[in-house]
Amino acid sequence: DADVTQTPRNRITKTGKRIMLECSQTKGHDRMYWYRQDPGLGLRLIYYSFDVKDINKGEISDGYSVSRQAQAKFSLSLESAIPNQTALYFCATGGGSGETQYFGPGTRLLVL
Amino acid sequence: QKEVEQDPGPLSVPEGAIVSLNCTYSNSAFQYFMWYRQYSRKGPELLMYTYSSGNKEDGRFTAQVDKSSKYISLFIRDSQPSDSATYLCAIWYGANNLFFGTGTRLTVIP
């Protein structure tokens, strides 16, 4: 089984809808991250969490919120989706100092 | 100025060629230098990492770091069609300071 799983893998939604992307990991890592990937812009950090009680904003957190339900689970919510949130979203985990990260397979989101 | 700059390509080479992928960075405090490989419709996976200047080899792959020039490279020898992917450099200097390049798309033609 995959170490980092994301659900759903694909999602189409409409402007204004609230959606949640979920991430689970079996690596036992404390650190978890949410990124979005856009062509020509690379990976950009949305939120990160160093443990269950620690949540931090990343580079592009506006319009997003997160919840760390357990060490193994980290969810990303779009409170009111807009078309420019159409992107590929990745969850990642990190152990140790956090320099290496392990990515999930991604969620492809389309906001109409 | 971006923390990490990477030539986006795309790069297309014949099978068996030597491939050179490059990134430059701006902050001399950077400590760890990594290369990730991302196949289409997959998440990035760590390919190699190093923390010192010089070369590090792993099979057909060589990661090279030149801290004086703030320049890192990934060389792929005897490239194979299975190497076709997007390659992202990533550089870290503590806590949550991990920066990714935009990625270079590589195609190896049989």
Mean pLDDT across the residues of chain A is 93
How many β strands of chain B by DSSP? 11
Measure the end-to-end span of chain B: 38 Å
Number of helices of chain B: 0
Global Rg of chain B? 13 Å
Distance between the termini of chain A: 33 Å
| Class from helix and strand fractions of chain B | mainly beta
- Give the strand tally of chain A: 11
Give the overall shape of chain A, derived from the CA principal axes.
globular
Q: What helical percentage do the residues of chain B reach?
A: under 10%
Q: Please report the number of helical segments of chain A.
A: 0
Shape of chain B: globular
Largest interface: A-B, 22 and 23 residues
Helicity level of chain A, as a percent range? under 10%
Oligomerization category of the chains in this entry: heterodimer
The assigned structural class of chain A equals mainly beta
One letter per element, helices H and strands E, the order of chain A comes to: EEEEEEEEEEE
| Topology order of chain B in helix (H) and strand (E) letters | EEEEEEEEEEE
**Beta strand % of chain A:** over 45%
Describe the fold and architecture.
- The complex is a heterodimer of chains A (112) and B (110).
- Chain A has strands at 4-7, 10-13, 19-25, 31-38, 42-51, 54-57, 64-70, 73-78, 87-94, 101-103, 107-111.
- By secondary structure, chain A is an all-beta fold.
- In chain A, strand 5 and strand 6 form a beta hairpin.
- In chain A, 37% of the residues are buried.
- Chain B is built from no helices and 11 strands.
- In chain B, the strands form 2 sheets. In chain B, strands 2, 4, 5, 9, 10 and 11 form a 6-stranded mixed sheet that branches.
- The termini of chain B are far apart.
- The mean pLDDT of chain B is 91.
- The interface between A and B is medium-sized, with 22 and 23 residues.
